[in-house]
């Protein structure tokens, strides 16, 4: 009987939570003349390396963890420059539980708000050897 009550309580909690929506991380290559290698992963999923041409974008779609703990990070590589950043963190303020758009530029990666403005507090610069 206790087991049934626990299952019913768990179902009620899950139904009371807002539905988990599909999320997308978009990484657009705005470099002047170079392709960028994008390699994204989470604790459980390795998306693999993708080559993104100038003017093109890479998109990663997923359903976030129901507890808001989803974390995807990406490594970018262009010739001798490297950069690693958290592309989606369900607990981070800069994401806010919505889709994420990033721009790869000569000075690094920039986060873009849903309204199209750059998020000044989120900018990661390239690492040079």
TrEMBL record:
Please give an example of a GO cellular component term from this record.
extracellular region
* Residues spanning the signal sequence: 1-16
Tell me the compartments it is located in.
Answer: Secreted
The Gene Ontology biological process terms listed for this entry are: rejection of self pollen
Q: Which UniProt keywords apply?
A: Secreted, Self-incompatibility, Signal
Asked if the keyword Repeat belongs to this entry, the reply reads no
What's this protein's family per the entry? Belongs to the plant self-incompatibility (S1) protein family.
Q: Report the PANTHER family cross-referenced here.
A: PTHR31232, S-PROTEIN HOMOLOG
Protein's UniProt name: S-protein homolog
Q: Which organism is it from?
A: Linum trigynum
């Amino acid at each position: 009987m206790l087991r049934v009550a626990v299952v019913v309580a768990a179902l009620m909690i899950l139904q009371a939570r807002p539905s988990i929506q599909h999320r997308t991380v978009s990484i657009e290559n705005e470099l002047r003349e170079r392709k960028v290698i994008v390699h994204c992963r989470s604790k459980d999923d390795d998306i693999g390396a993708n080559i993104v041409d100038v003017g093109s974008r890479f998109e990663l779609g997923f359903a976030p963890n129901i507890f808001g703990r989803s974390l995807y990070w990406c490594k970018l590589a262009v010739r001798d420059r490297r950069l690693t950043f958290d592309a989606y963190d369900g607990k981070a303020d800069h994401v806010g539980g919505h889709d994420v758009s990033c721009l790869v530029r000569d000075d690094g990666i920039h986060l873009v708000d849903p309204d199209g403005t750059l998020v000044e507090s989120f900018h990661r610069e390239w690492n040079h050897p």
